[in-house]
Amino acid sequence: MKITLDNVVKTFDTFRAVHGVSLAIGSGELVALLGPSGSGKTTILRMVAGLEYADGGTIRFGDRDATRIPVRERGVGFVFQHYALFPHMTVAGNIAFGMKVSKLRRSRAAIDARVAELLSLVKLGGLGGRFPGQISGGQRQRVALARALAVDPKVLLLDEPFGALDANVRRELRRSLRDIHDALGITTLFVTHDQEEALDLADRVVILDHGRIVQEGTPQQVCRAPSSAFVTRFLGDANRLVAEVRGGRALIAGGSIEAAGVPDGRAEIYARPADLEWAREGAGIAARVIRVMDRPESRRLVARLPGGEHVELDVTPETAVDVGDSGVVTLRRANVFALA
Amino acid sequence: MAHAPHGRPPRVGDDAAVRRALIAFVLAVGAILVLAPLVVIFAQAFRLGIPAFVANIAHPDTRHAILLTVLTALVAVPVNTVFGVAAAWAITRFDFPGKRALTVAIEIPFSISPIVAGVAYLFVYGLQGLFGPALQAAEIKILFALPGIVLASMFVTAPFVARELIPLMQAQGRDLEEAATSLGASGWRTFFSVTLPNIRWALLYGVVLCNARVMGEFGAVSVVSGNIRGQTNTLPLHVELLYHDYNTAGAFAAASILTLLALVTIVAKVLLERQGAGRVRRPALAAPLPAAALSTAAALSPAEGAKP
Predict the structure, then answer these.
(1) What does the CA dihedral B21, B24, B26, B31 come to, rounded to 10 degrees?
(2) Could you give the CA distance from residue B255 to residue A4 in angstroms, rounded to a whole number?
(3) Quick one: A22 and A139 in the same domain?
(4) Which residues in chain A are contacts of B294 at CB distance < 8 A?
(5) Are residues A157 and A270 in the same domain?
(6) Which of A205, A231, A257 is the last residue of a domain?
(7) Cross-chain Cβ contact B283/A124 below 8 Å
(8) Interface contact B171, partner A, CB < 8 A
(9) CA distances from B239 to B50, B61, B151, B225 (A)
């Protein structure tokens, strides 16, 4: 089911949470709404679900205007941030709930069979008799997913699906959500503030800030060509250096980098730690190492430039470097944005 | 701090002398203030033996008072339960003008003297009151009759159910109801299948307290009932009446029934609190163990994957 948002607006009292958002999600697509807290991403998700109503604009499911259809009749599966499992029902009871209250009458045996099928889909076979309070956070998340899928929704919506889980469980559940999505082909929209999660899982990422879409595209598009300083910073660690652009090159003391299309004048350079190179000597920006942080896959150096700015750069684990060492930093790759 | 020198107490306030004195004081005062009167009530009620006790209870006026009290509770408690659930729902689920005022207003009967409530009812429904003439013209008798007693009892006990539910429903939030609705449940279905089971212990607790207070209410009822023996005398009023008649054994027999009711209420309260606490604690107990529980899940899932 294709979902189309056209100029959707939502205001709470005096606070405008969503400013005219337009977005098209293709049938069977897996899309992430990514943004910091307060960016309006959850509000958009809740409006698609029908848990909130838009103050302006339209939301279409396929060709049908769904803007005013109540959540009960919208045919969406919603996974809540804190799962919202019914604590007084067993896992199987939770999953069966949607089928039991449905207008479509199902036999008890049909419901039981479907519950068993869903339990094995989310790899929780044998836990149907437990209560939500007796299972782990990751298992609860999977029950919430199975419960949402039980009503055969046309659209699956997830609000910070892995927010409350530890890193390893997150990664595992991310893969299994991707597998389930690929197996069922259901149009899926999820909200996250975690850029790694969005980039890992989604076909397409929609980045939001202050209730507006600031960029959308495939993970590759947003990573390689971030449209603004905000997107660059939000997608990951980035060093910021102020530069002067002249004739398509950004100049800083001790170096320069290509800045095609950026008008002459003051600009800011964003460079990822892995896009900076460290050398003992040679051409480049003079720098002095003030901290070394060792990581499994690299060493991260914090270095001070002559102007007093700190930059962070990643070097190979073999690099021999210590606090106090002097050397030069060169820019291998960077994004340049004009300063207003 | 933990190993203070010179044998000083390891924890603040854990001095043996203070501890003993405090416990002795509390026990002594508790015995004099609470236990002694309780013992006296039953001792006096059975002073002339069981047959006399039964005769006292079986006296038509006493029986009528018991009946009237039960009748009042049968009307006031269900009405206040529905009101309490509705009020708690409205306050915790909706935003509306006057919400704060309603929250405060619900508490008023707790802080106001019941006698003031009784007098107020007198001036609303009495002959010289607001609706008095209209009610008389329509031949509806509220004061000095069952409706007045029920109304006064309801006023006094209006907060009991709502006050138990509001904090709980606030803590639970709207998520469960939103989840049920998104799965296709109707409003009623959501209320009975999801909301009610999750508030049931607090609700029962509120109902038990409300019932105890309705049956025991004296002040407000005393003003509006007119104390007509065998007609508008509830059990607490009847106790006072018998006492003023110098029928000590009768008064204590009637009082013992009210006391018994109070004891049953306390036991029910303790049992309900234990149930309610168990409900709340169960998820929290499991929460700190995700790692352990997850390894079980990891152990389970490959086996599950192999089965089909």
Answers:
(1) -160
(2) 72
(3) yes
(4) 136, 138-139, 169
(5) no
(6) A231
(7) no
(8) no
(9) 19, 11, 21, 15
A111 has a chain B CB within 8 A of its CB = no
Residues A92 and A221 occupy one common structural domain: yes
A286 CB near a chain B CB, below 8 Å? no
User: What is d(CA B119, CA B202) in angstroms, rounded to the nearest whole number?
Assistant: 32
What pLDDT is stored for residue B142 in this prediction?
81
Instruction: Supply the pLDDT for residue B228.
Output: 82
CATH number of the domain within which A197 lies: 3.40.50.300
Q: Pick the last residue of a domain from A190, A206, A231.
A: A231
Whether A220 and A247 share a structural domain: no
Selecting from A51, A127, A151 the residue whose C-beta is nearest the C-beta of B184 gives: A151
Distance of CA B123 to the CA centre of its chain: 28
Residue B285 touches chain A, beta carbons under 8 Å: yes
Same domain, residue pair A222 and A257: no
The one-character DSSP state at B288 is T
CA distance A122 to chain B (A): 9
Same-domain pairing of A264 and A246 = yes
Same domain, A254 and A294: yes
Residue B30 burial (C-beta neighbours within 10 Å; 0-12, 13-18, 19+) = exposed
Query: Which of A163, A222, A226 minimizes the C-alpha distance to A192?
Result: A163
Q: Report the Cα B113 to chain-centroid distance in Å.
A: 17
pLDDT at B7: 60
Asked whether the CA dihedral A61, A144, A175, A38 is positive or negative, the reply is: positive
Query: Does the ipTM exceed 0.95?
Result: no
Query: What is residue B248's predicted lDDT score, i.e. its pLDDT?
Result: 87
Q: Is A101 on the interface with B (CB under 8 A)?
A: yes
CATH code of the domain containing A263? 2.40.50.140
Domains in chain A, number: 2
Q: How far apart are CA B248 and CA B35, in angstroms?
A: 20
Minimum Cα–Cα distance from A76: chain B residue = B182
Query: A98 vs B184: CB contact, 8 Å cut-off?
Result: yes
Whether residues A295 and A156 share a domain: the answer is no
Residues of chain B with pLDDT under 50: 1-2, 4, 278-308
Q: Name chain B contacts of A150, Cβ cutoff 8 Å.
A: 183
The reply to whether A147 touches chain B by the CB within 8 Å rule is: yes
Q: Give the domain range for residue A172.
A: 3-231
As given in the structure block, the two tokens for residue A26 are: 């293709």
Contact pairs from chain A to chain B, CB under 8 Å = 114
- Which residues 186-205 on chain B approach chain A with CB closer than 8 angstroms? 186, 189, 193-194, 197-198
Nearest to B197 by CA among B181, B177, B183: B177
Asked if B279 is an interface residue toward chain A (Cβ–Cβ < 8 A), one would say: yes
Residues of chain A short of pLDDT 50, as ranges, are: none
Distance from the Cα of residue B290 to its chain's centroid: 38
